[in-house]
Amino acid sequence: MTAPAERPAPPSDGRSGGAPAAPRTTARRALRRWSIVAVVALAWWALYSVNKPWWDLVLGDWLGLDLDSRVGGAVHFFLYDTVKIALLLTGIIFLVTVLRSFMSVERTRRLLGGKREGVGNVAAAGLGVVTPFCSCSAVPAFIGFVSAGVPLGVTMSFLIASPLVNEVAIALLLGLFGFGPTALYVAAGLTIATVAGFIIGRLKMERYVESFVFETHLRGQAIDPALGLPWDDRLRMGVEEAGAILRRIWPYLLVGIGIGAFIHGWVPEDFFAEHAGADNPFGVLVAVGIGIPLYSNAAGVLPLLDALVAKGLPMGTLLAFMMAVVALSLPEMVLLRRVLKPRLIAVFIAITGASIIAVGYLFNAIL
Amino acid sequence: MHIKILGPGCANCTRLEQVTREALDALGLEATVEKVTDDGEIAAYGIMRTPGLVVDEQVVVAGRVPTAAHVRELLASH
């Protein structure tokens, strides 16, 4: 897409513009870099705006499909949603990766080092959102935090917030449901991470952490990957990350949108309003029960939810389902089993699950 | 030269190994490349976001996959 991989002229100097030599080359390079970014951003915006009229034109006028019919509506939903979600994901993952390249897990750990429980939990939840982190590093990060003296509960707040309020979820919520539900989701996610971590800390469960974690001695100097990266590298990371995530999640995405298209066309209009409406006391419970073992990610679930909400599924049930899917999953538990004993994992699932259920009911009651 | 690739075997770790081997070939350097997948070992190097690149027991890259050119610089200056 973009991003020439060459680095600024003096390799020893990390920050562009810092070197006295050849300031004109640096300026020209910066101009070129930001022109490319601007052109790509414009192209993105153009594609995004033309998406709906384009499919209306192709399917409705050229192919003569009736867009209000079941088949026509489903086909239109599938094509339109696929392009829209792919664009949203690419744009927001790129943006978030570039912004997050200024943060690092190392810096987060330093910030959390001296914090006490309570304040520490709030800070950890917030940092969990802005720190670049992938759940595949959950284990070394856990060891790194705990062995550096960050309290167990504070560490858990970080580990809960990080997948719960992630960039893919935010991108899709924003695109599909708008600002209000997205803000609610983020606020709820932060609260859950803070409270659940705080409770785990209060339960004094340190003895249910595998003992080798406390025996790990950190040797050497941890290096901060966020320091002194030139802009070219940050932008390149954004492009690579967007590509890598799309390559990983496209099957989930297509299956999710496919099921969504089916629901869109064939499930009766008020099916969920009747069977799983806000007045159904078991709605949230069932949604979270299905969501916890389900291993998918926001990308697979959200297009589905987009169709479900159109059929009358209440917002609280929907957000609770989504949280259960992204926050708790079987593979993550298997990973965490390497550092946590089963009892602590059970407590972790129970407390996080209960918080999600509470949030679901709360939203259904107030929205 | 003793090089360690730290990571549980995710896609990024494989890419880092590939990039490192490319850089070694380009420089014509002889080195043993070892993969470290043990969590305790990885964490002990202070790595909290994989992958990590360790040259002669010194962490030079953490948390991202650098370009082959960048690895060449790192190895050449080592």
From TrEMBL, chain A:
It comes from the Bacteria. The chain crosses the membrane at residues 34-50, 85-103, 168-201, 249-267, 282-305, 312-331, 343-363. It is a multi-pass membrane protein. The keyword Transmembrane helix applies. Its main location: membrane. Keywords: Cell membrane, Membrane, Transmembrane, Transmembrane helix. The keyword Transmembrane helix applies. It is found in: Cell membrane. Residues 1-22 are annotated as: Disordered. Belongs to the UPF0718 family. This is Permease. It comes from Demequina sediminis.
From TrEMBL, chain B:
It holds the Pfam family Thioredoxin_3. It comes from the Bacteria. InterPro entries: Thioredoxin-like_fold, Thioredoxin-like_sf, THIRX-like_proc. Residues 1-75 form the Thioredoxin-like fold domain. PANTHER family: THIOREDOXIN (PTHR36450). This is Thioredoxin-like fold domain-containing protein. It comes from Demequina sediminis. The lineage of its organism: Bacteria, Bacillati, Actinomycetota, Actinomycetes, Micrococcales.
